[in-house]
Amino acid sequence: RIRKHTVMVNNDPIAEPYLTKEALDSMGDYGPVTVPRGELFVLGDNRGNSSDSRVIGFVPEGNVVGRAFVIIWPPGDAGGLTPG
Question: 75: domain CATH number?
């Protein structure tokens, strides 16, 4: 669920320090939803303008072919991502 600009998983808030204030402010309440086994609920970092699982629904795990490992934009935030 998304509530008051915060993504919650099993009622626990998820820390998303990479989101801008604009992205947080553009995020309306959503859910709750139950993600089926073998499926993923994906969210873009540009929350106000992302066609993510709030629009397209769940994504089968088998459709994921890679993993993000680096930030390239904006240049001031460029660097490696911590695996998680």
Answer: 2.10.109.10
pLDDT of 6 > 80? The answer is yes
Q: Which residues pair with 9 in a beta bridge?
A: 12
- Residue pair 52/44 in contact (Cβ under 8 Å)? The answer is yes
Phi/psi at 70 (nearest 5 deg)? -150, 150
Give the residue numbers spanning the domain of 61. 2-80
Q: What pLDDT, in 10s, does the model give residues 26-84?
A: 888 899 999 999 999 999 878 888 899 999 999 999 999 988 888 888 888 888 887 76
Sign of the C-alpha dihedral computed for residues 55, 41, 6 and 75 taken in this order: negative
Encoded amino acid at 54, one letter: R
